[in-house]
Amino acid sequence: MESRASVVHVAAPIRASLARGGAVVALESSVLAQGLAIPHNREAAERMIRGVESSGAEAAITAVVHGVPTVGLAAHDLERFLARDGVRKVSSRDLAWCMTEGADGATTVAATLTLASAAGMEVFATGGIGGVHRDAPFDESADLVELARTPMIVVCAGAKSILDLPATLERLETLGVTVVGYGTRELPGFFTIGTGIPLSASAESPEQIATLWRHHRALGRTSGLLVVQPPPAHSALDHDLVDAATAAALARAAAAGVRGGAVTPFLLAEVERQTNGASVQANLDLLEANAVTAGQIAVAIARAQAGNS
Ligand code: PSU
Ligand code: MN
User: Fold this and answer.
1) This prediction's pTM
2) How many angstroms does the Cα of residue 174 sit away from the middle of ligand 1?
3) Which residues share a beta bridge with 70?
């Protein structure tokens, strides 16, 4: 049988960096092909890559490229994903089918975890993870179960505000995923700085996350570690504004009968409309901030490992 590593194409520079124990950060592509509209998606890609690099790490976007699971998307392929034309949304269940059809697929957090871990990566930056949807028996993102079985650090601004956040945190606890606040003791609200929901762990530095990760791995834990960082204060949104926008978006989704994988992109676009675009600015800023932090964590882990060997 083909091995997991052999079916995933890892771009040469990323492979070389991993082989010498360098710092690398995975980035998802669904946020580019489904989550953000043109031209914001290009800005997001550029700012995330630069953010990772500003920390001294290398960025690798994951995607399925003409049926090939890929870690380290080439520039000319990225253009097709930014054009969003015929690019499907690929969660973990969709990976093998996307390969079978030879299609282009933009990977969600769940699918990115699968590809990046096959490549031997340990750090991944995104905006917000999926989770348990509100009043929807039963819509829970595959992001949660993949986090439960993939040893990877995921840096995000929490779960998207359109979700049931207390239920999402409870599910993460059940699944054994450690959630650590980065510079905060409460769960961030993605667009908002806080939610009032307390966390059981909080860290202040990349080195502290690296130590936490070392302990996690030493215990033989095969689950992920979710690092949640509040969005930058200058563009974070007000609670009431997000609440009202979300309520309106949920009502429209219900009226339009939106289901399955289309729910998350639909709600994000509606929130953008309801906030007159303010949510996009917040989204871009937090994506970059998360990329910077993930880069710093990857560098701290690489340094600690170099020091130990
Ligand atoms: N957060 C965003 N934009 C996005 C997503 C998250 O700000 O586009 C994407 C991520 O790829 C996440 C996915 O993994 O939405 C979750 O989709 P679902 O709920 O269908 O699993
Ligand atoms: Mn879903």
Assistant:
1) 0.96
2) 21
3) 9, 63
